[in-house]
Amino acid sequence: MFGLLIPCGGGKPIVLRRGHILVGRRLEYAPEDGNLPAASGLHCELVYDEQGWTVRTFHGPRGIRVRVNGARVETRRLESGDILFLAGRRYRIEFSRVDQFLPDSDLSLPEARGDADPAAFDVPRGLLIPQGEGRRFPLVKPTIVVGSARDSDLVLPGLTVAPHHCRLDFEDGWWRVTDTSRGLGMRVDHIPVQEHWLYPGDVLTIAMFRYELHYPVGASLTAGVAH
């Protein structure tokens, strides 16, 4: 969870479970009493990074803009407690830094294989959290191989898991997943993908295994590595 949108007129808060949210007539996070009929088809986006939330307006044919604390904005860095006016509705946004939302976990480094390059390891920059039973997997390398082969970083058993099923790459503070299963496939938030940038809160499905990704957006994986 990366924060809440709390209706100023009362009602159930909208939980911000992802680091990138598109707001329009078809909301990713809709109020209980329906969507926003006064909004443009694609009204605005909310993007989370290590500094917090930013709102950006998409200009529709009517030139509708988002208001923050009563002022019209195109792009605005938000502070916790700011009031967003979205197509006739007012919400107070509440949030903290992304790393404060990371679940408690033992983030000690896993034991490296004998042939591993020590310079490739650093403090974890994220977690893969199983949806069900299993151990949390700290992301401590810039490239993580997932598969059934013993030389994979994250080993998942099963006939429907390829030896090297997919690869996670950390680039410029973001994680990207690439399918290397040669036809067995994978899903992100239930959607089949071949290659996909991952946001915090995305759920990666490989065969029967489902992992939710948590990480502080924009962090540098190589910071502090000894050379």
TrEMBL record:
Residues 21-78 form the FHA domain. PROSITE patterns: FHA_DOMAIN. Gene3D superfamilies: 2.60.200.20. This is FHA domain protein. It comes from Maioricimonas rarisocia.
